[in-house]
Amino acid sequence: MPLVFLHGVNTRAEGSFAQGYQSNVLARDALFRTIGLKSTVQNPAEAHIFNPYWGNLGARFAWDLKSLPGRGAEQFGPSLGSTPLLLGAYLQENAPGAALQANQGLALVAKRSLLEAVDLLWACGAEQIAQPAQAQALAALAVKTLDYARHNPNPDWLPQVIDDRDLLT
C-alpha cells in the first residue's frame, strides 16, 4: 500500500529552501516507516512513499525574493529553525505566563508532559537531517524515546531536571 504525503501551501524547495525541504522529507519518510506504517503494512522498509512537490506551482515571489535582506542582516523566522517557533507556540497554549529562563523551554514542557516534549524534540530534530542514514537513525531513536515516554510519563529523575541540556543528557 503506497502512502502519498501532500505538503501545505507554504512549502518551497527551490534555492535556499531546498536543504530544509529535503531534510523534512527524509525525516518524515523515516518516521512513517518506523512508526506510522509499522502496524499497517508487512514490510514498512519497502513501502512506497510519494511526496509530490507542487510548491513551484504556487505563488511566485516578486523578483525571486531578491528584495529581502541578504547576508549580514538580522533575520527572524525560518532561518532560526522550528525549535523556537514550536516551543513558543506550545508554551503560549499550555503554560501562558510561565517564567522561562534561557535553555529551559523543553525541560518545562517535559515536566508538564514528557510525551509532548519528545514529540517537540523529534519535530525539531527533523530539520537537521541531510542523509537517509541520519533519517533512519533519528526515526529509530524516536521510536525508543516515544516508547519510553509512553511507559514512563513521570520518571523519578524528571523533577531534578534543571534545563534543556540536563533533560537531553
Give an account of the 3D structure.
With 169 residues, the protein is mostly helical. It contains six helices and two strands, in the order E-H-E-H-H-H-H-H. It has helices spanning 18-36, 82-94, 105-112, 114-125, 132-151, 164-168; strands spanning 3-4, 49-50. The N and C termini lie far apart (39 Å).
How many E strands? 2
Mean pLDDT: 81
Taken from the alpha-carbon principal axes, the silhouette is flat
How big is the Rg? Answer: 18 Å
Give the uncertain stretches in residue-range form. Answer: none
Strand count, sense and barrel status of the largest sheet are: 2 strands, parallel
The helix-strand sequence is EHEHHHHH
Strand content: under 5%
Q: Strands of the largest sheet, in order across it?
A: 1-2
- SS content category: mainly alpha
Number of helices: 6
Helix content: 40-55%
Distance between the termini: 39 Å
Summarize the structure.
By secondary structure, the chain is mostly helical. The chain has helices spanning 18-36, 82-94, 105-112, 114-125, 132-151, 164-168; strands at 3-4, 49-50.
Helices and strands in order:
Layout: E1 3-4, H1 18-36, E2 49-50, H2 82-94, H3 105-112, H4 114-125, H5 132-151, H6 164-168
Parallel strand pairs: 1-2
Helix pairs in contact: 1-5, 2-4, 3-4, 4-5
Give me some keywords for this one.
mainly alpha, flat
